[in-house]
Design a protein that fits this description.
Elements: H1 2-29, H2 35-60, H3 65-106, H4 123-180, H5 186-214, E1 223-226, H6 227-244, E2 248-252, E3 261-264, H7 266-283, E4 289-296, E5 302-307, H8 342-352, E6 356-362, E7 365-372
Parallel strand pairs: 2-4
Antiparallel strand pairs: 1-3, 4-5, 5-7, 6-7
């Protein structure tokens, strides 16, 4: 009895090893083929080994022909079921792999949403597909920002060329008039030339400041800056400008100065707030009011707001307000002040201080708000 059992086990092991070796060779030959084929081969090899081992065992144990056919039919149907499941699984994996490959081929060349494969894929391939879709969205957003920056740079070159061409033409005309002796009011002509040069210097300074902010220089040494005192200084410097434009400049700050301190560069912050106030004064109609407000939010951040009476900004232009060269009108008028860089510089300064700047329409005008982190106290 033990000898018969040993013989059956030996034959079963031998046929199993033979079929396994043949399956391994076939699998090796198909290693560069489709994953679906390799999965079918991998599923058929153990089934064939089981069938061969059972067939030899049935013959060795002299089981009746009826019982032998029952066992073989059962194994055959089990093999067919396993084959069908392996084909289905291979189909899912193949379709999912092709979908991943298709997304990879389009990644970086096409930023349009890619249609899904339309079949259920394993969780690993689904997770990989989701990561590729997130990467596509990030690349699309980056591509959109790059196109917007390129458009902004082109507009800046065109706008600054226009803004510099007009005063240069004026300087040339005045200098030729002085050279030909056709200008009687020489001191007035010199004052006009000085004013034109000052305006051109302001444009160049704005370009330099914008370039410095865009190149992300090493962080400077920063100190505690009182936004209350800064707002008072800016209001004092712009009072004459507001009075000349027929605009009232109002200041609203709380008495508690310690709660309104931020960590930053006082010169940069002063320039940013000055740009906002000057822009508000220029666009507020005569008889209107520009209000400079400083307070503290509930979350502890310090808020500075400049509210004007410009009549509001069209909804389509709210997202472009801080773009380089944007002025809100189609015609370039250098005499209106600035080259359309003031708001872009203000945004660069605020963001370099880990703050946020935004604009919204209010009753009769718009409000520019700056949120800055407060000074951290030990």
């Amino acid at each position: 009895m033990n000898r018969d059992m040993a013989t059956i086990l030996a034959l079963t092991t031998l046929w199993t090893l033979i079929v396994a070796a043949v399956g391994a060779v076939v699998l090796w030959r198909f290693r560069r083929r489709s994953l679906r084929i390799t999965m079918i081969v991998a599923a058929l090899a153990p089934m064939a080994g089981a069938l061969a081992a059972v067939l030899q065992s049935v013959r060795a144990m002299f089981i009746s022909e009826h019982d032998s056919w029952v066992v073989l039919w059962t194994l055959a149907f089990a093999a067919l079921l396993g084959l069908a499941m392996s084909v289905l699984l291979g189909h899912w994996i193949t379709v999912g792999s092709r979908d991943v490959g298709r997304r990879l081929r389009h990644l970086g060349t096409s930023y349009e949403p890619t249609e899904a494969a339309g079949v259920v894929v394993p969780a690993e391939l689904a997770a990989l597909t989701n990561e590729l879709e997130m990467t596509r969205k990030k690349l699309a957003a980056s591509h959109q920002r790059e196109r917007a920056l390129e458009t902004s740079r082109r507009e800046l070159v065109a706008f600054m060329s226009h803004d510099l061409r007009t005063p240069l033409a004026g300087l040339r005309a005045v200098s030729e008039g002085l050279e030909d002796g056709v200008i009687d009011d020489v001191p007035g002509a010199l004052r006009q030339m000085r004013s034109t040069v000052d305006r051109m210097t302001g444009l160049v300074d704005d370009l330099f400041e914008l370039s410095r902010l865009s190149t992300a220089p090493p962080p400077r040494r920063r100190s505690a800056v009182s936004l209350r005192e800064l707002a008072e200084d800016v209001a004092g410097e712009n009072n004459e400008h507001a009075r000349a434009e027929g605009v009232q400049l109002a200041l609203s700050t709380p008495e508690d100065d310690d709660r309104l301190a931020v960590q930053g560069d006082p010169d940069e912050l002063t320039r940013a707030v000055t740009n906002l106030v000057g822009n508000a004064i220029r666009h507020t109609t005569a008889g209107g009011t520009v209000t400079l407000t400083v307070d503290r939010e509930l979350d502890g951040r310090v808020r500075l707001a400049v509210t004007d009476g410009c009549g509001g900004i069209p909804a389509d232009d709210l997202e472009r307000v801080f773009d380089v060269g944007w002025r809100g009108d189609e015609q370039r008028t250098p005499d209106a002040g600035g080259g359309g860089l003031g708001l872009a510089i203000a945004r660069g300064v605020v963001e370099s201080h880990d703050g946020k700047i935004a604009v919204s329409n209010v009753d009769g005008g718009c409000a520019f708000e700056i949120d800055l982190p407060p000074v951290l106290t030990k």
